[in-house]
Design a protein that fits this description.
It is a single chain. The protein is an alpha+beta fold. The chain is about 40% helix and about 25% strand. A hairpin with a 7-residue loop joins strand 3 and strand 4. About 15% of the residues are buried.
């Protein structure tokens, strides 16, 4: 799974902003630190960091992935 190339991210004032350059979604997504980490991992397609609290992370990842699926931001 990876983030579609038509979605571009940038950081502004400590917050990640994601916008679509395609026609499927018009708008922007503001991400907290957890969501920004997940999006960055989807851009890189590799996870290199160890994560301590697996249950909390799994819940956060599911929520972010559900949102990205809903707006059509993923190639699966």
């Amino acid at each position: 799974m990876k983030l579609k190339d038509s979605f571009v991210t940038y950081n502004s004032d400590g917050e990640q902003i994601m916008v679509s350059t395609g026609a499927d979604f018009s708008g922007l997504v503001r991400s907290n630190k957890t969501a920004a980490f997940i999006v960055e991992q989807l851009k890189a397609e590799t996870t290199q960091e160890k994560i301590a609290d697996r249950t909390a992370v799994e819940d956060d990842v599911k929520m972010v992935l559900d949102t990205l699926r809903r707006i059509g931001a993923l190639d699966e």
